[in-house]
């Protein structure tokens, strides 16, 4: 009694507007809360340790981008693979491939941690840390690297809980880990006097909570997705990496562009400039979580409908999702444009130079939110369809292909205003490509549906 039947699957139903929003809402809440507790973490560092420590976090951020990118690549690519197998009725194959990917994520996290700690001083210098920022970078990054396996595992399990039809559990775990992170940050920084290392320790323990819960949940004998004997071999790993490579491309590109932003700001405005761009980058993450979460929440539905070959349901889901993302993009743009100054002051505290620079940046940077929602959804959409090439192309354009040249060239023309405008112009160019790819995919699906309806 109480156990789900073997064939029970929350993805196997009709999704109207309300049902789709309800299904995605826990993932939206998860991502929004993740963004908020990331901001709390950064606020503790900025207000309790100092803006130099805030700059140091952004200096070492490329390493964190790499870790998140690898975890998201395995999670999103693996989710598409597992959901497709479930949609095709291959429950055992889905479980075996899921288990293999979970083991691979853990092993990869251990390798990254060992390599990073072994070359820590050279790594920090290579990222462009000044003598003033080096101690802050060392204290923060050394602890974060120790928790790399947990960081990868957190991203992986939170995504696969959605695929298992339990997005609400993912939200609850995120709430719990976020609250623990905030509490531990304060304990380690203020009473403990650990500075940036204390903030990193709180973050790492926050990573470990969803991992422990995920291991327990998927080890139970019940539900549509659980641990089994690993299967699928390197082919399953390679397919997951290929499907999710756009997310990896996005994070690698974010690592490179963060490095370029830091270098441009350090050359023109010193450590205060790095602190200001840090405020914008972290604020961008928080304000983007609304449509990032929605895209992640509907991705298993898209993969499942695609796996079943239900073209009409897939087209309906896509239309509903695009409408929701478009409306949320307008809301996020308005929030960034009207509240940028307040956000800057919240981070900078008494450092008026950093606050003024960040507020100036928001007045131009905010326009990127008009385009980034559709761009992010488009990349997730093609990943869900197992079209890793299109997804990677869109992700590459918005995060590196257009952005890196803009960072390198625009400041020569418009000075520091060119730095703030780099992201809006790159997102606008990527938006045009996203619209074209979505239109082409729609025509392709309509062509297949017409072909299937022709009498034979």
Automatic annotation (TrEMBL):
Pfam families: MatE. The keyword Transmembrane helix applies. Signal peptide: none annotated. Keywords: Cell membrane, Membrane, Transmembrane, Transmembrane helix. It is a multi-pass membrane protein. The keyword Calcium does not apply. It is found in: Cell membrane. The chain crosses the membrane at residues 20-40, 55-77, 98-120, 140-157, 169-189, 201-219, 252-269, 275-299, 320-344, 364-385, 392-411, 417-439. This is MATE family efflux transporter. It comes from Bittarella massiliensis (ex Durand et al. 2017). The lineage of its organism: Bacteria, Bacillati, Bacillota, Clostridia, Eubacteriales.
């Amino acid at each position: 009694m109480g156990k789900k039947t073997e064939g029970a699957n929350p993805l196997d139903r009709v999704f109207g507007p309300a049902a789709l929003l309800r299904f995605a809402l826990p993932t939206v809440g998860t991502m929004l809360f993740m963004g908020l507790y990331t901001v709390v973490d950064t606020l503790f560092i900025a207000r309790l340790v100092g803006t130099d420590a805030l700059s140091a976090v952004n200096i070492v951020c490329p390493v964190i981008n790499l870790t998140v990118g690898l975890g998201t690549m395995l999670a999103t690519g693996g989710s598409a693979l597992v959901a497709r197998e479930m949609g095709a009725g291959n429950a055992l194959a889905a479980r075996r491939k899921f288990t293999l990917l979970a083991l691979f994520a853990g092993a990869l996290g251990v390798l990254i941690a060992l390599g990073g700690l072994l070359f820590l001083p050279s790594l920090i210098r290579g990222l462009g840390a000044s003598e003033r920022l080096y101690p802050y970078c060392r204290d923060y990054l050394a602890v974060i690297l120790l928790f790399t396996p947990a960081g990868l595992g957190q991203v992986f399990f939170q995504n696969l809980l959605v695929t298992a039809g339990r997005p609400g559990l993912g939200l609850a775990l995120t709430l719990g880990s976020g609250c623990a992170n905030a509490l531990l940050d304060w304990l380690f920084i203020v009473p403990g006097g650990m500075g940036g290392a204390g903030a990193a320790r709180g973050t790492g323990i926050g990573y470990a909570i969803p991992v422990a819960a995920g291991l327990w949940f998927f080890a139970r004998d019940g539900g549509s997705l659980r641990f089994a004997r690993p299967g699928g071999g390197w082919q399953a790993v390679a397919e997951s990496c290929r499907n999710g490579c756009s997310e990896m491309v996005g994070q690698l590109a974010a690592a490179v562009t963060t490095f370029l932003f830091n270098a441009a700001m350090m050359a023109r405005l010193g450590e205060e400039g790095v602190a200001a761009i840090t405020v914008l980058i972290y604020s961008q993450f928080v304000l983007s979580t609304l449509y990032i979460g929605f895209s992640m929440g509907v991705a298993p539905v898209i993969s499942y409908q695609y796996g079943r070959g239900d073209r009409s349901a897939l087209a309906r889901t896509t239309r509903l999702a695009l409408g929701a993302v478009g409306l949320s993009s307008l809301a996020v743009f308005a929030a960034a444009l009207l509240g940028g100054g307040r956000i800057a002051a919240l981070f900078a505290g008494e450092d008026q130079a950093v606050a003024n620079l960040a507020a100036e940046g928001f007045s131009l940077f905010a326009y990127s939110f008009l385009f980034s929602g559709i761009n992010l959804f488009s990349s997730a959409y093609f990943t869900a369809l197992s079209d890793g090439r299109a997804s990677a192309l869109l992700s590459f354009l918005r995060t590196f292909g257009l952005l890196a040249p803009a960072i390198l060239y625009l400041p020569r023309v418009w000075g520091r205003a060119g730095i703030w405008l780099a992201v809006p112009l790159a997102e606008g160019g990527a938006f045009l490509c996203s619209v074209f790819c979505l239109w082409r995919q729609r025509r392709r699906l309509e062509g297949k549906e017409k072909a299937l309806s022709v009498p034979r």
